[in-house]
Amino acid sequence: MHNKYDPSDEAMTGEMPSPGEAQRLRHELWLCRIELKRQDEELRRTRAELEVLRIRHPGRDSTPGEQRRQAEEEANRDKALLRCLIDSVGDLIFIKDMNGVYIACNKASEEFIGLPESEQIGKTDFDFFDRDMAETLREHDRQILVSGKERHNEEWVTFRDGRRGLLDTLKAPFYGPDGEQLGLVGISRDISDRKRMEDALRESEERFRTLCDSAPIGIFLSDSEGNNIYCNPRWEEITGMSAAEGRGQGWSKAIHPDDLEEIGKIWLEAFSTGRLFSHEHRQLTPQGQTIWVRALATPVKNPDGTISGHVGTLEDITELRQARQELLKAQKLESLGVLAGGIAHDFNNILTAILGNVSLARLQLHDHEKVTKRLEGAELATIRATDLAQQLLTFARGGEPVKKIIDARGLLREAADFALHGSNVRCEFALADDLWPVEADEGQLVQVMHNLVLNAVQAMPEGGTVTISADNAGTSQEGKRSVRISVADSGTGISEQHLQRIFDPYFTTKQQGSGLGLATCYSIVRRHGGEIGVASILGEGSTFTISVPASDLETASKSDSQKTLIHGSSRVLVMDDEEIIREMAKVMLGELGYTVECVENGSRAVELYLERKEQGSPFSVVILDLTIPGGAGGREVIASLLKLDQNVKAIVSSGYSSDPVMANYRQYGFSAVLKKPYGAQEMSNALRELLI
To answer: How many Å apart are CA 74 and CA 320, to the nearest integer?
Structure first.
């Protein structure tokens, strides 16, 4: 028990109790007992002084009377101070005599009992509480008075009128100046509201725990360092770990090793920024099974805004991902059906043009001029088929660009004129006079312009104007020179709903479209290290803008589209697994004046090259097909030939532009590239690079 007053202590009220609550109650009770003892001593001393005055001055009442009044005033003042002290305490304070009769109480007791002190004095607990409760309280008092020791109780009390309240009470005996036990003094706190709050909180926690324990998804709670401090049973089921195993950083052991680094980066970013953590990743169960889960974690913040931890969920989405993949497969099959229909439509038109022109040429063999015209028509249709095939390959296989320096002005005009052929749309050009040459794949860049111009034509079914602009962007000092090209139309425009999806594969709003054109444009431009974007207003038109890297060289190479055929007389070796291509190449090269030998596989190509070299009639150029099913292709053959002849001149030929050899042929030992399909002009240009 304290015997010293601590000024830092304050009278306790009805707030949540601190760890020192019982000690406070004892302290306040101690104050009351000390004050009662002091008052008793003061009254005893006053009576003694009055008795001395009466003996010394019999018959003289003035001075003793004044002193008696003074003593009474001092006693009254002390009582008033004691009353003020007791009434200022927010807890209930009461005093009982040896028979349990109330002889004093404070304001808080008056409010709790509902009666003023004057109506409490002289009464017992039987007057305020029901009989069972009064008996219990009386027994507590008896034990205190008999033992002479204080007692602490926490009990619900029931009043006679049915009211209930929870009291936290400390009682102790008090004694007179002569040591005689006079009764007991008690101090109580009404903790009814606090108890109800605790019960409500406990009930809420129980509901929360029940909810978490029965939740169909995993729930976890972590501290500010990412340490797991709670997880529900479903979390244990998903991870295959117990709560103890997952505590702290143990949860990370369930993550698939290949996903752990990525998750760490995403978690660190979410933690540092206070954003929601969301991620789908793989986990390994103790049985070695791989599952997919989705983890979500929301930061829990302190009042000052700092993050105290995270609360999150973990969901097994293995079956969902499987269903998603199946749905994606179904969507792809449906899209492929649309794509195949569009391709079949386009190819049928092209084949009709080819077959029709060839048939007419047969019928018109007597007229050289008409035959030439028909063959030119078939050739143009074949070029269209080439473009369509190249578009499909670019989209499906990647199509690494085979770059060279190109004059963009000439390319834009030729591509636009070809795309607008036969339409009711005219084209206007706004091309900078000092336009830089670009470093790009000529065929792929033409393909982009074809698609963009055709898209503009389809947006203006009633006719209109396509405006093609080009200017320089960036500076040489910045080291990021590029050429910016825009294709603008005044057609129907694109709705905001569709604007975000126009570059998605298979997406189209046209009945006859395959949804491949703009997706192919996007793929080509990005592989060139450029950018593509669109701005559109519904009903007013659209503007597509692309940028491609400019060349540091100021002079572009001559276009391969020139029509002059260069003849030669050198020896050429052709390797290709297709007999029809070997036959066509042999005749074509023969018409150009070359001596040609053809082989169908890589081993025979190496043998024949070595034989002719030893015979003194070596090949000047070899044309190697890049892909030979079941055998050595161009890459393997050139490696063998370089061992025989470091000065070998080889041309790589393939219809698969996605192969890195086509884009970086010099790194593999080739001297030039010849993309399939090719004609006499392309063959002549390729040989001219090496032999002239």
So the answer is: 88
Q: Determine the Cα–Cα distance for residues 670 and 146; give it in Å rounded to an integer.
A: 114
Rounded Cα distance, 213 and 482, in Å: 60
**101 by DSSP, 3-state: which?**
coil
**Which tokens in the block code for residue 414?**
């030729």
Q: What is the DSSP string of 165-217?
A: EEEEEEEEEEE-TTS-EEEEEEEEEE-HHHHHHHHHHHHHHHHHHHHHHH-SS
Q: By C-alpha distance, which of 652, 653, 650 is closest to 676?
A: 653
| Positive or negative: CA dihedral 338, 344, 346, 349 | negative
Domain extents for the chain? 21-191, 215-316, 322-389, 401-549, 571-691
Is residue 509 within 8 A of residue 497, CB to CB? The reply is no
pLDDT value at position 595? Answer: 93
Write down the pTM of the prediction: 0.43
Domain boundaries 215-316, CATH class: alpha beta
Give the length of the chain: 692
Say if strands 621-625 and 650-654 run parallel, antiparallel, or are unpaired. parallel
Contact 92, 188 (CB under 8 A): yes
Quick one: which of 516, 503, 561 has its CA closest to 346?
A: 516
Q: Look at residue 561 in the predicted model and tell me its pLDDT.
A: 44
For the cut 90, the answer to whether the pLDDT of residue 502 exceeds it is no
Going by C-beta distance under 8 Å and a sequence separation of 6 or more, which residues neighbour residue 118? none
CA angle 116, 118, 119 (to 5 degrees): 70
Is the per-residue pLDDT at 395 higher than 60? no
Domain 21-191 has CATH 3.30.450.20: yes
- Taking alpha carbons only, the member of 675, 673, 613 closest to residue 648 is 613
Residue pair 212/243 in contact by the 8 Å Cβ criterion: no
Among candidates 393, 262, 325, 452, which has minimal Cα distance to 675? 393
Three-class SS state of 595: strand
Q: Rounded to whole angstroms, how far apart are CA atoms 331 and 506?
A: 10
Q: Do 21-191 and 215-316 agree at the fold level?
A: yes
CA distances from 95 to 89, 125, 174 (A): 15, 12, 9
Lookup: tokens for 265: 């980066």
Average per-residue pLDDT in the chain? 79
Cα-only R_g, the chain: 50
CATH code for 571-691? 3.40.50.2300
The two beta strands, 672-675 and 650-654, are parallel
Tokens of 386: 């080439």
Superfamily (CATH) of domain 401-549: Histidine kinase-like ATPase, C-terminal domain (3.30.565.10)
Which DSSP string do the residues of 214-256 spell out, in sequence order?
A: H-SSEEEEEETTS-EEEE-HHHHHHHT--HHHHTBTGGGGGB-
Spatial distance between the Cα atoms of 333 and 52, rounded to a whole number of angstroms:
121
Give the mean pLDDT of 531-558. 80
SS3 breakdown of the chain: % helix, strand, coil, rounded to 5? 45, 20, 30
